[in-house]
Design a protein that fits this description.
heterodimer; A: 169 residues; mainly alpha; B: 426 residues; 21 helices; 0% strand
Chain lengths: 169, 426
C-alpha cells in the first residue's frame, strides 16, 4: 500500500513537471518561430490547442497532490483554534464532504467523457477526440477523492503540513 | 429561500475551514439538483471545463513558473541590491529601496504572498539594521507586496479580463499607474517615519558600485522590459510574454548566473504546476457557480434595485469598496472575483463606470483585504516566513492600511488616474 502510494506520488509529480516544461517550451518556441520565420508560423496553430490540453491535464492531475501537501486554499484559522474534539469532528465533516463531492464529480465527468467519445467530436486543429479534454477530470477527481479517503483513514494530516510560504498563490 | 439556505451553508463551510473548491462547488451542485432537476448532470463538468480551457488563462501557469524560477534563483536578490545601491544614501533609504525592489519583483511574481516570502527574507534584516522598528518593517514588507497585484503582469488582471472581457493590455497599463501611485504613497509614509525616528541614511555607495549593481540586476530588469515593452508595443499577447519570460528565466538562472541546476528547474516546474492546479480548480468551480448565478437572474434583480433606488456611480463604488474590503479579509483574490464579478460587473457597466477603472478599484480593495486583520493572508505569510508573531505584523500594518484607504478613495473617485495611461499607450 505504502509503496503503491509512493509510486503514484512520483508519477503525479513527474507528469506535472513534464507538462509544465513541455508547455513552456512549446509556447515560447512558437513565439520565436513567428518572429524569426513568420512563413512557417501559421502551421503552428496547433500549439495553442496542445497547450490548452496540457493545461487541463495539469490542473486536474494536480488536485490530489495539492490537497495532500496542504496547498488547496482554505480558511483554516478558525478550524485550527477549535478544541481538539470539536476540531476532529469538523475535520471529519470536511473530509467526508470532500470525498463525496470528488466521487460525484468524477462520476458525472466520466459520463461526459464517454458521451464525447461516442459523439466522435474532434478538436479543431489536432483532429483528436475531444474526450482527451474531459478525460483528466474523472482521473483528477478520483485522485482528489483518494486523498480525502487517506485523510479519513488517518494516513495523512494536511493541516499539519508546513507549507513553504513562498509557494502561496 | 433555498438560495438563502445555500448562502448560509457556503458561509458556514468557509468559516469552518472547508477547502475553497468545496465552498464554491458543493452549493453549485446542490442548486442544480434542487432548483434545476431536469438539467442533465453533465452540464457540471462542461461548465467546470469552461473555466479552465481558455487561451487567455494560459498566461497564468507561465507567470507562476517564471516567478518561482526568479524567487529560487539569484534575480530577486540582485533587484534588492540594485535598489539599495540607488536609494541607500538618503534618509531612510533602506525603506525606499525595499518599496522599490518589492514593487519590481512583485510585478514579475504576480502574487503578493509569494513576494512577501521571497523579498521579505532579503529586506527585513536590512530594514531593522538601518534603524526601522521591527513592527514598521513587517508592515512595510507585507503592504508593499500588494503592488504585485497591480503592477503588470498580474494574475489578478488576467482573471479579471477573462471574467469581464476587458482588454488585458488596458488593465496592465492602468495597473502600472495605480501601482506607482500606491508605491509613492508608501514611500511618503517611509519618509515620515524616517524623519520622526531620526533614522540615518544607509551605506552610501560610490557611483562605481551603483553601476555594478545596475549591471548585475540587468538580467532581472530585462525580464520586466521584455514583458512590458513586448505587450505594450503589441509584439506579444500576455500569454506569449508569459511563456517567453519562462524561457528567459530558465536561460538566465541556469546558463548565465548558474544559480539553478536543471534538476532544480524540474523540481520548480513540478511545484509551479501544483500552484497552477490550486488556482485553476477555483476558476473551474467559479465558472460553475457563475453559471447558476446567471440562471438565477441575480443580475437583473440587482439592476432593477439600482434603478429603483437611483443609485449613482459614486454610491455604487462606495458599496463595492465596503463589500470587497470585507470579502478580501477572508477570501483569496481569485475567489472574490469569481463570486462577485459576474453580478457586479454588469451593474457597474450600466452605471457608466469604465471597466478598466472598475478593475482597479476591485483589485485595490482585494490588496487591502490581504493585509487587513484578522485574516489577511499576507499577515500570516509575513509572520511565518520571517518568524515573527502575527500580533507584531498586525501592529505594524495599521499605518499602511490607512494610507491604502486614502489611495483607494483617490483611485475610486478620480477615474482618470486609471484611464489616462491606457489611452496614452494603446
Amino acid at each position: 500500500m505504502g509503496v503503491a502510494l509512493a509510486v503514484l506520488r512520483r508519477l503525479e509529480s513527474f507528469l506535472l513537471a513534464i507538462l509544465m516544461l513541455a508547455m513552456s517550451f512549446a509556447y515560447s518556441a512558437n513565439v520565436l518561430v513567428r518572429e524569426l520565420a513568420p512563413g512557417i508560423a501559421s502551421s503552428l496553430a496547433w500549439i495553442d490547442e496542445i497547450c490548452l490540453f496540457g493545461l487541463v491535464w495539469m490542473v486536474f492531475l494536480g488536485l490530489g497532490l495539492a490537497l495532500e501537501r496542504g496547498r488547496q486554499i482554505a480558511m483554516t484559522s478558525v478550524l485550527l483554534k477549535l478544541a481538539a474534539p470539536l476540531r476532529r469532528g469538523v475535520k471529519l465533516a470536511i473530509d467526508l464532504t470532500g470525498l463525496a463531492f470528488s466521487l460525484y464529480v468524477a462520476q458525472v465527468s466520466f459520463t461526459m467523457t464517454l458521451l464525447v467519445l461516442r459523439s466522435g467530436q474532434v478538436s479543431p486543429t489536432l483532429d483528436i477526440t475531444m474526450s482527451w479534454l474531459y478525460g483528466p477530470m474523472p482521473a483528477g477527481f478520483l485522485l482528489l477523492g483518494m486523498r480525502y479517503a487517506l485523510e479519513l483513514a488517518g494516513a495523512n494530516e494536511r493541516h499539519a503540513v508546513q507549507v513553504d510560504p513562498s509557494l502561496h498563490v | 429561500m433555498i438560495a438563502l439556505v445555500l448562502f448560509v451553508l457556503a458561509l458556514a463551510m468557509l468559516a469552518l475551514g472547508f477547502e475553497m473548491l468545496l465552498v464554491m462547488g458543493l452549493p453549485s451542485v446542490l442548486i442544480k439538483h434542487v432548483l434545476y432537476p431536469d438539467m442533465p448532470p453533465v452540464a457540471i463538468p462542461q461548465r467546470m471545463l469552461g473555466g479552465v480551457e481558455v487561451v487567455t488563462l494560459l498566461a497564468i501557469p507561465f507567470f507562476i513558473f517564471a516567478a518561482d524560477l526568479m524567487a529560487r534563483g539569484k534575480m530577486a536578490k540582485q533587484l534588492a541590491d540594485l535598489f539599495s545601491a540607488l536609494f541607500g544614501r538618503y534618509r531612510g533609504g533602506v525603506g525606499h529601496s525595499t518599496v522599490a525592489a518589492v514593487m519590481v519583483f512583485g510585478a514579475a511574481a504576480g502574487s503578493a504572498p509569494a513576494t512577501v516570502a521571497a523579498m521579505g527574507r532579503i529586506a527585513f534584516p536590512e530594514l531593522v539594521r538601518s534603524g526601522f522598528s521591527e513592527r514598521f518593517s513587517l508592515g512595510l514588507i507585507s503592504s508593499s507586496a500588494e503592488c504585485a497585484l497591480l503592477i503588470p503582469p498580474s494574475i489578478t488582471f488576467v482573471v479579471y479580463s477573462w471574467l469581464t472581457g476587458t482588454s488585458i493590455a488596458g488593465l496592465f497599463a492602468a495597473g502600472l499607474a495605480v501601482g506607482i501611485v500606491l508605491g509613492l504613497a508608501f514611500m511618503g509614509l517611509v519618509a515620515w517615519e524616517a524623519y520622526r525616528r531620526g533614522i540615518r541614511a544607509g551605506d552610501s555607495s560610490s557611483s562605481a558600485q551603483r553601476w555594478r549593481a545596475l549591471r548585475e540586476a540587468g538580467w532581472a530588469l530585462g525580464m520586466q522590459v521584455i514583458i512590458l515593452a513586448g505587450i505594450f508595443a503589441g509584439y506579444f499577447t500576455a500569454t506569449e510574454a508569459a511563456a517567453v519570460s519562462v524561457a528567459y528565466a530558465i536561460l538566465v538562472e541556469v546558463l548565465v548566473l548558474r544559480s539553478l541546476t536543471w534538476r532544480d528547474v524540474f523540481a520548480i516546474a513540478q511545484e509551479s504546476a501544483v500552484s497552477t492546479s490550486v488556482v485553476f480548480v477555483l476558476l473551474a468551480m467559479g465558472s460553475l457557480l457563475a453559471y447558476f448565478i446567471t440562471l438565477g437572474e441575480v443580475q437583473a434583480t440587482l439592476l432593477q434595485w439600482a434603478q429603483d433606488w437611483h443609485v449613482s456611480w459614486v454610491g455604487f463604488l462606495m458599496v463595492v469598496n465596503v463589500l470587497f474590503f470585507i470579502a478580501g479579509m477572508f477570501i483569496d483574490a481569485n475567489s472574490i472575483m469569481l463570486i462577485f464579478l459576474p453580478t457586479l460587473f454588469p451593474l457597474s457597466s450600466s452605471l457608466g463606470i469604465d471597466p478598466v477603472h472598475f478593475g482597479m478599484v476591485v483589485t485595490l480593495n482585494i490588496c487591502i483585504g490581504m493585509i487587513t486583520p484578522p485574516f489577511g493572508l499576507d499577515l500570516f505569510v509575513a509572520s511565518s516566513s520571517l518568524k515573527r508573531p502575527v500580533e507584531d505584523v498586525v501592529a505594524g500594518v495599521w499605518p499602511f492600511i490607512w494610507v491604502n484607504i486614502a489611495v483607494l478613495m483617490v483611485i475610486s473617485y478620480i477615474p482618470s488616474i486609471s484611464t489616462a495611461l491606457p489611452r496614452l499607450l494603446l
